Amino acid sequence: MKVGLHVSIAGTIDLAVDRAKESNCDTFQVFTRNPRGWRYSALDPQEVGNFKEKLKTSGIGPPISHMPYLPNLACPEDELYEKSVATLAEEVDRCVQLGIPYIVTHLGSHLGRGREVGLQRLTSALDVATKRARGDLQILLENMAGQANSMGSKFQDLKEIMSGVKRAERIGVCFDTCHAYAAGYDLQSKRGVDQTLSKFNDIIGFDSLKVVHLNDSKGGIGSGLDRHEHIGMGYIGERGFKAFLHHDTTRGLPWVLETPEDERRDAQGNLRMVRKLGK
Fold first, then answer.
1. Residue 236: which of 182, 175, 155 has the closest Cα?
2. Closest residue by Cα to residue 183 from 196, 195, 173, 202
3. Alpha carbon distance 182, 186 (integer Å)
4. Closest residue by Cα to residue 267 from 19, 39, 99, 85
5. Which backbone phi and psi does 23 adopt, to 5 degrees?
6. Which residues are catalytic?
7. One pLDDT digit (tens) per residue for the chain, 279 residues
8. Residue 36 in contact with residue 70, Cβ under 8 Å?
């Protein structure tokens, strides 16, 4: 099993590796910059060197980057769209410098202008960004929970986006369990997990599945509610996660927890629960 957390880069970015190690992670996810603003600082070469060296000696990996929250790659409004595309392209440059192989991105909203508009915007943005990719870097499309006007909640939608990108080899998928369940895919039982992952393979193919976000769901199946819950405490439940974690196609993948922290359980508690269910 390769299971880890989203860790902070506060201070210097190389400290993220230290935090992942202290948290007993096998893999980890970061924001390489402020996730709630447009402004950012260039990476310090010394910090980049320290990040790479610590990563090498720690044995933890792969490191995964998550795009900031503000960009909307499906946006029909030119000003926001251009800023969003620039942010994704800059994130590619930062991850190339850091040696991070995966960038997870949300797919955004067409704001009521229709799927075709959103699809055209998305594929154009991904074409711009993938031109700058080097080495093994891939941009991973995260399946969405089915919110109104959102893109990429159904497997067929993800496939359509991927098929429209010129450098398709630079595109993969990050599968979020909460989002899939909220979008109507059953993950509550072994049968449901088998059917859902079989459908994923039929439409997209397991070769494209690179990272999993492990999150239980506060909303019911098909609710369209993007609300993460502690592992086993939501609608997917322990039985669903046990089946998912033992499925042949998920065993070797990096699993990243994005669960809440509260009086019921902290991040370490969720790590322990995943390892217990995954035994």
1. 182
2. 196
3. 9
4. 19
5. -90, 5
6. 36, 66, 69, 106, 142, 176, 179, 213, 226, 228, 258
7. 899 999 999 999 999 999 999 999 999 999 999 999 999 999 999 999 999 999 999 999 999 999 999 999 999 999 999 999 999 999 999 999 999 999 999 999 999 999 999 999 999 999 999 999 999 999 999 999 999 999 999 999 999 999 999 999 999 999 999 999 999 999 999 999 999 999 999 999 999 999 999 999 999 999 999 999 999 999 999 999 999 999 999 999 999 999 999 999 999 999 999 999 999
8. yes
Parallel/antiparallel/unpaired status of strands 102-105 and 209-214: unpaired
User: Burial code of 194-213, b = ≥16 C-beta within 10 A, e = fewer?
Assistant: eebbeebeeebeeebbbbbb
Q: How many residues does the chain have?
A: 279
Q: Which CATH architecture has domain 2-278?
A: Alpha-Beta Barrel (3.20)
Report the b/e string of 33-67 with b at 16+ CB within 10 A: beeeeeeeeebeeebbebbbebbeeeebbbbbbbb
Using DSSP bridges, classify how beta strands 171-176 and 209-214 pair: parallel, antiparallel or unpaired: parallel
